[in-house]
Amino acid sequence: EDGYDLWLRYKPLPAAEARGYLKAARRVVTGPQAGETIAIAREELARGIEGLLRRAPAGSTRLAGDGAIVIGTPKDSPEIAALDLPLDRAGAEGYVIRSVRIDGRRAIVIAANEEIGVLYGAFHLLRLMQTLQPLDALDIVERPGIERRLLNHWDNLDRTVERGYAGQSIWDWHKLPDYIDPRYRDYARANASIGINGTVLTNVNADAVALTPAYLEKTAALADVFRPYGVRVYLTARFSAPIEIGGLDTADPLDPRVRAWWRDKASEIYALIPDFGGFLVKANSEGQPGPQDYGRTHADGANMLAEALAPHGGVVMWRAFVYSAENPDDRAKQAYDEFVPLDGAFRDNVLVQVKNGPIDFQPREPFHPLFGAMSNTPLALELQITKEYLGFATHLVYLAPMWKETLDADTYAAGAGSTVAKVVDGSLHDYPHTAIAGVSNIGSDRNWTGSHFDQANWRAFGRLAWNPLLSPEAIAEEWVRMTFSNDERFVAPVVDMMLGSHEAAVDYMTPLGLHHLMGTGHHYGPAPWVDDLDRPEWNPVYYHRADREGVGFDRTETGSNALAQYAPEAAAAFAAPETTPEEYLLWFHRVSWDFEMKSGRTLWEELVHRYTRGVEKVAAMRRTWAGLDELIDAERHAQVAAFLAIQEKEAKWWRDACLAYFQAVSGLPFPEGYDPPARSLDYYKSLSFPYAPGH
Ligand code: BDP
Questions:
Q1: In the chain, at which end, N or C, are there fewer CB atoms within 10 A of the end residue's CB?
Q2: How many CB atoms lie within 10 A of CB 344?
Q3: Please, what CATH class does the domain formed by 506-553+590-686 belong to?
Q4: Ligand 1 pocket member 538 (CB < 6 A)
């Protein structure tokens, strides 16, 4: 058990359940015209059933007796065409699963309008078995809430991965297109099992070489592998590519030669990859080239690429992650300031891709104020699955609760109930396209994600992308059952651990709305003291503003007034320090060290309390895990145990370093009943990690 099988392990179920399911899974029936994707669904069902129930189902094109699973679309399966199924509710990618009688014989149908829906439905039925759900009287209709459910790989062509903690890039560019690593198919299969339907193969800090003919051939080879699994490929487009690989002397989006170059490039790509998804672009951000280099706007840049892709059906995902040195007032405000005036200026096939919060994937951020503020521009939500600011691969942090906070946040854009989820799924503003992106945590490690529990974050992203209304608890529970065990003695405590893990990390890293206290560059470990980097907004001190008087970033009227970027009803919740939810206190307010918290503690005491509580929660997770060793395989148990030990050590380091620093700044004594930091502030400052992974 090295984790390679992910949640698709298909280990034998307990005998009692297996017996019951066997009656319903004797054979898998496909129509005579079934295509490649239905064949994959049939194989998956056969593999799953054989593993779970220890008996391979017969494959057939005919019903014979009870217990068939009939799969297909009305086009390829006469049985399905003859049934009266609510396929209109399933859309292009959804499916219907029903217990039915066909000519008096009991069967389960997995029906869809397109073949991909059949594959998604097959994975659904297998999940029901894997998690021991009843199979009688099934009546399921599913369809995804969001059109494009994408992974964003920050993978470089040299196989390093920006912010990757799971080994090298899984794309072995050097051997492509001639060698097709079997992993590519397993990758597509895993993604299909959770409804992910697209992948951006390359880093947002893009390399124009990816658009050269040799690399497009490599990308086409991957696209060929992914296609039957419903996964389309996308690439990042470096804005200056026309200069770097096109021989032009400009990349000005209004220059006709530049426009022609991109049109030709798009045609070249689509000749190789007819279902190419489109481009993801980071422009005029952190040194990336962009339209502003030529005095043009983000809309000019995005529209040029959109025009090139439009005839082929591709989209542009233009990132709103921009901030510049010229705007040191408040980095949190910049994306809104730049993009809101452009609302309505983008072509139909442009989506603006926005991170969940206004700074940068911090352990906790309030929702990004662009959500709700651009009713004429489809906004895609970008989440980070890889844990750049959340302990890399070793810390156990289940991210669904954090993502859910964003999805459930109320923008009040069209009155109460205008959640971010409704912006992103297009229902609030009737967007022509919808998308959600997760920055991938996948690499060449045997277990894919660098740790066993980080697999849960990949899966949770896919599940929420399919249905943003799912609960983090339900997603955690099914993952635990599928990945480890159905033993209740294991499931309940592990789900609890997962659900509390994000709050624990917030506590030991950045409680009470603190943010960006991480080590310079690599973001490994605490460094709240850093104040000497070139640009003000690169320094932790810029974000916490601690001094002898108090701490926190005043984003109200008396400060940067970033608060005014939210709708009035949303802003009202954060307006006064006394009424702001404490988890956002220091994000929006600067308060004195003796500010009274709801607990009755002063702010300083509360800070010490939360940092300490975070460490205690990790210690508790460790104890819980240690007690579960009999219930799963030794191999995975041992690695998780070792990683939890690292997490506890690093949680203490975070606590002690941050508290030593804040104590030095505030000059306050350490409250009674709490251990003072183990080492001096100078010691924590002296630590250096030139080789921390993932830069
Ligand atoms: C930050 C990362 C950086 C990315 C950037 C981005 O530190 O590596 O390039 O985001 O999203 O979180 O473009």
A1: C
A2: 10
A3: alpha beta
A4: no
User: Which of 286, 348, 531, 635 is labelled catalytic?
Assistant: 286
Residue 328's identity, in one-letter code, is: P
> Using a 6 Å cutoff on CB, does residue 204 contact ligand 1?
yes
Q: Is 393 close to ligand 1, i.e. is its CB under 6 Å away?
A: no
CATH class of 15-142: alpha beta
| Confidence (pLDDT) at 64 | 85
Three-state SS letters, 633-674: CHHHHHHHHHHHHHHHHHHHHHHHHHHHHHHHHHCCCCCCCC
- Which residue numbers in the chain have pLDDT < 50? none
Cα–ligand 1 centroid distance for 282 (angstroms): 10
pLDDT at 61: 85
ipTM value, please give it.
Answer: 0.99
Ligand 1 touching residue 196 (CB < 6 A): no
Catalytic: 630?
no
Look at residues 591, 645, 584, 589 and name the one whose alpha carbon lies nearest to residue 618: 645
Distance 500 CA to ligand 1 centre (A): 26
Q: Which of 230, 185, 228, 187 is nearest to 94 (CA)?
A: 230
Q: Could you state, in order of their start, the residue ranges of all structural domains in the chain?
A: 15-142, 148-483, 506-553+590-686
Q: How many helices (H) and strands (E) does the chain have?
A: 21, 16
Got the DSSP string for 594-611? TPBPTTS-BHHHHHHHHH
Query: What's the angle, vertex CA 447, arms to CA 132 and CA 131, rounded to 5?
Result: 5
Confirm if 123 and 44 have CB atoms less than 8 A apart. Answer: yes
pLDDT given for residue 12 in this prediction:
97
Ligand 1 atom with the smallest distance to the CA of 439 is: 11
Q: Which of 618, 638, 619 is nearest to 628 (CA)?
A: 638
Question: Of 79, 360, 454, 554, which is the active-site residue?
Answer: 360
Say if ligand 1 is within 6 A of residue 160 CB. Answer: no
Decide if 109 contacts 98 (C-beta within 8 A). yes
Return the pLDDT at 108.
98
Q: Over the range 242-279, which residues count as b (16 or more CB within 10 Å of their CB) and which as e?
A: bbbbbebeebbbebeebbebbbebbeebbeebebbbbb
Nearest-CA residue for atom 2 of ligand 1? 163
Strand pairing report for 379-384 and 350-355:
parallel
pLDDT at 644: 98
How many CA within 13 A on the CB side of residue 157? Answer: 17
Count of Cβ atoms closer than 10 Å to residue 572 Cβ: 13
Task: Fold for 148-483, please state it.
Answer: TIM Barrel (3.20.20)
